[in-house]
Design brief:
Elements (H helix, E strand, L loop, with lengths): L1 H16 L1 H14 L5 H13 L3 H9 L5 H4 L1 H6 L6 H9 L14 H11 L7 E8 H13 L4 E6 L6 H15 L3 E7 L8 H9 L3 E5 L19 E4 L3 E5 L17 E10 L1 H17 L19 H5 L7 E7 L7 H12 L3 E5 L3 E2 L2 H12 L3 E7 L5 H17 L2 E5 L3 E2 L3 E4 L3 E5 L3 E2 H6 L2 E7 L1 H14 L3 E4 L1 H5 L3 H13 L4
Parallel strand pairs: 2-3, 3-4, 7-13, 9-11, 10-16, 11-12
Antiparallel strand pairs: 1-7, 2-5, 5-6, 6-7, 8-17, 9-14, 12-18, 14-15, 15-17
Helix pairs in contact: 2-3, 3-4, 9-10, 14-15, 15-16, 16-20
């Protein structure tokens, strides 16, 4: 033990004696070798010089962009997959889709943008069911799992060993015994409290388990950034789930700290399920090194993704969906850019629900311009923090919206975790991405952008109903907050570029 302390002391002495040189090297890397917002650059430089040693440790923990290009090189090649995207784009450009009541001419450019930049195929033969309650969502999910015939693919950011996951385990084991292929992909940070013995038990039952960026020191994961925040379930290419619920008892309202958990999750049937399947396969391939694209049966959709023309001309009401994703491995901030387009196009109202509101300058400016232009901009955030630093930064940014004429609300019937945008009762975007810089740039996220008036109106009605459980933050109330709240806000806001 004495030798250990001696070793630590020698490391400390070495750091202190070389601190100026280390800070100089890191400063050069931050300024010249990384694409970062200027505010983030200055924040890191200040941290390095005014918080010696600890600033260096924070940099190692939170700012690991040095190896990002190498880390995602293989994954970026895989993400170039473009199933049907070019053919569909040619079809849409060659036909008049301005009269489609599910798209409209105002959003045609957004469809093309998603096709061009990420190969996000538009599917219109979809059905959607919306869940806002965890008990109902997981009951429906268990029923869908019981009906699986071919395969089950499950991906969640957080999985905990409690009653929610344990209620699914017997179903999954039973399906594996029946010959159904079951795969579970969990983030290394979000799944750190699942004991290895349980993963081993599942593997022995014939279930395939993958960990995205697993921890290297037991439960300690030094890679804080680049977390896989996606929540996807695909069953037999027939049914898909995407949204905000993770797997844990707090998501069914059984955590005393949070109380009722208000979230939004989508159950999708139709062509968009294949897009979710592709996203799962890309993440699984990277984490497990098993190329699912070698097996065509995982992507068999009977041509539904390509046959968009007959559906548009048929009697069935088309429900348009594009599955869009973002992460540190791609060039474009796809989800954030879709939000921006919705904000710029809105003429009547914009409704936003998010547990974290830490926008970049472009998003904040777009919302301020919309509000000052007479658009009814409404933001709903939680009334309680699950991460105090993020909560106070969120509260600070609400002030910028209030000053522009937007209306901001705190949800008080438990914890609000829903993540979505609704614009003009025409188009909505819901999924896993928060309205914050981490979701825009550092986490792997997935959203469904839905070109459908009926679905959008349904989600807007849910939003307006939630207002009954909200406290509206007025500009007068915000300006009269005490000095301690102001200090917490500004400190959290100052540190937010460190993301």
């Amino acid at each position: 033990m004495g030798e250990l302390f001696i070793g630590i002391w020698k490391v400390w002495q070495w750091l202190m004696s070389h601190l100026i040189f280390i800070n100089l090297i890191l400063s050069i890397i931050i300024v010249f070798f990384q694409r970062r917002d200027p505010k983030a650059v200055w924040t890191w430089l200040l941290a390095l010089y005014f918080i010696p040693v600890f600033g260096f440790l924070f940099y190692l923990l939170f700012c690991q962009d040095i190896n990002k290009s190498k880390m995602f090189r293989i994954k970026e090649v895989e993400d170039k997959l473009r199933i049907s995207a070019r053919g569909q784009e040619n079809f849409l450009r060659g036909h008049n889709i301005d009269e489609m009541d599910t798209l409209g001419k105002d959003y045609k450019e957004l469809v093309f943008y998603n096709l061009d930049t990420s190969g996000a195929v538009l599917t219109v033969n979809n059905e959607i069911e919306i869940f806002t309650d965890g008990m109902a969502k997981f009951e429906d999910l268990r029923n869908s799992l019981r009906q699986a015939k071919k395969f089950i693919h499950i991906q969640y950011y957080i999985i905990k060993k409690d009653e929610v996951f344990l209620s699914m385990v017997p179903i999954l084991k039973d399906k594996a015994r029946q010959g159904v292929e079951v795969r579970i992909l969990c983030d290394g940070m979000g799944g750190r409290f699942v004991p290895k013995a349980l993963w081993k038990e599942l593997e022995e039952a014939g279930i395939f388990v993958g960990i995205f960026f697993p921890p290297i020191l037991g439960r300690l994961n030094l890679r804080v950034n680049y977390r896989n925040h996606r929540k996807i379930v695909v069953i037999d290419n027939q049914t898909g789930y995407v949204g905000g619920f993770n797997i844990g008892k707090e998501y069914i309202g059984k955590d005393k700290k949070f109380g009722y958990w208000r979230d939004t999750h989508l159950k999708i049937r139709g062509g968009a399920v294949i897009s979710l399947q592709i996203r799962f396969a890309l993440d699984w391939n990277y984490a497990v090194k098993e190329n699912l694209f070698l097996h065509a049966e995982y992507f068999d959709d009977n041509g539904e993704m390509e046959n968009i023309g007959p559906i548009l001309s048929g009697e069935k009401r088309p429900l348009g969906i594009q599955i869009i994703t973002s992460g540190p491995d791609v060039t474009y901030k796809q989800i954030r850019n879709n939000y921006l387009e919705l904000f710029h196009k809105a003429r009547k109202h914009i409704y936003i629900q998010t547990p974290y509101f830490i926008p970049d300058d472009a998003v904040l400016s777009a919302l301020q311009i919309a509000a000052r232009s007479g658009v009814d901009v409404r933001l709903m955030i939680p009334c309680m923090p699950d991460h105090p630093f993020v909560y106070w930064a969120t509260y600070s940014y609400t002030g910028d919206l209030l000053e522009a004429g937007a209306r901001c609300y705190q949800y008080e019937n438990g914890f609000l975790h829903a993540k979505g945008v609704m614009a003009d009762s025409c188009v909505c975007c819901y999924g896993t991405a928060n309205m914050d810089i981490r979701s825009f740039e550092l986490n792997f996220e997935v959203n469904a952008i839905i070109y459908d008036e009926e679905t959008t109106k349904q989600l807007e009605e849910i939003f307006l109903n939630d207002l009954k459980y909200c406290h509206e933050i007025t500009l007068e109330e915000y300006n009269n907050r005490n000095i301690f709240i102001r200090v917490k806000e500004q400190g959290s806001r100052l540190l937010s570029p460190l993301l």
